[in-house]
Amino acid sequence: xEEVIRFALLGFGVGALYALASxxxxxxxxxxxxxxxxxxxxxxxxxxxxxxxTTNYGWKFAPALxxxxxxxxxxxxxxxxxxxxPLRHVSPLVRVIATL
Length: 100
Prior knowledge:
The protein is about 80% helix and about 0% strand. The longest helix is centred in the first third of the chain and has 31 residues, at about 1-30. The protein is an all-alpha fold. The protein has 4 helices and no strands. The protein is flat and about 55 Å long.
C-alpha cells in the first residue's frame, strides 16, 4: 500500500508539471497567436541560474529563486523584442520555426 501512495504522489507531481506547461503554452498562444516551443528552454535556463547561485555561489534559496525568475523573464522579453516582434507580419509557420 505504501508503494501505491508513493506512485500516486509522484503521478500527481508529474501531472501538475504537465498542466503548468500546457497552461503556459495556452497563455502564450492566446496572447501572440504562436506556439512558443522555447517555453521549456527558458524555464530550464531560469532553473539553471537558480541552481548555479545556490550550489556554487552559496546564495540562499529565496534570492536565488527570484534571480532565476528574473533571468527567465529577461530571456523571454528579449526573445519577444529581438525575434518575435520583427516577425509579427510574416506567416505563423515562420514564427513557430523561429521559436524552435
